[in-house]
Amino acid sequence: MSKGPNFATSNAAAGYMGSASIGGVQVRFSDANIAAKQEVEAPDLVMADWDRDAFNYGKVDISGSISGPFTEDFVAGGLLSWACARGTCGELTANDVDLAYYCGKDKSFTDLLVNSFSLSCAAGDAAQFSVDVIGRSTSTFGTGDPDFKTTSEKIITWDKVGVIATGPSGVADFKYSNFELTVANNVEPVYGIGFDSLLPLDLVPGLRNISGTLTAIGVADDFEGYDIWDDYTAANDGSVAFTLPGLAITVICKFHRVEPTLSSGLITSTVGFTGIGHQTGAPWS
Prior knowledge:
Blueprint: E1 19-22, E2 25-27, E3 31-32, E4 35-37, E5 40-41, E6 56-57, E7 61-69, H1 72-75, H2 79-84, E8 95-102, E9 105-122, E10 128-135, E11 162-167, E12 170-171, E13 176-184, E14 188-190, E15 202-204, E16 209-217, E17 238-244, E18 247-255, E19 259-261, E20 268-275
Antiparallel strand pairs: 1-2, 1-8, 3-7, 4-7, 5-6, 7-10, 8-9, 9-10, 9-13, 11-12, 11-17, 13-16, 14-15, 16-20, 17-18, 18-20, 19-20
């Protein structure tokens, strides 16, 4: 006769009891899934059997993401500098991330680089972040308890977020219902032959990709969308400035053509932009 599950030894635990700290700054978030991932590879071989008998362990991929709403404390913690700042030779800043899953289980990751970062906000909602990271070393589960954080902090809502888009001919006079900004560093893990590990030997930041969209309320006919190809002037870049309490970032960019949407609801216009030219100032340098 089966006794059923042994609830006394269950590993079930409440996720809200976990915590995360980035570079020593504890953050509140919605989801975190950083882990070391590795597959067992069983190739198709001629082996006188109909079941796979030969296998190898694949390379170790240390990656994942942390996402959630911006809070005033977290904005002051230097997230943008970690994601955007490049050194003289294009190097990124490394940071440590500590995850505690519940009382008695934690895992630390050292020297993580930001592979991509996104900032978004919609009218009626809180400003959201998502940061994808990549690393080259991992650790086993520890037995440390999560750091308790009991101080109150304010989540940044849409009314505290500012967007100013400026084209070659001046500021675009529009209100926006939502926006998204993505900074992709395209970090490439490098694996070396002859090392006693399947972990990456090094991490190399690639070309930076900056892109995003603005959703303007109404028909954005005088936004910097040109009708004639020759109207684009190479020397005259546009820019988009995003501001939150404790955070400001300006993207030098070129705007795409405006795409208005006509429906029975609110008329909106989607304006894409692509980062172009050398980004300067905080948090880029």
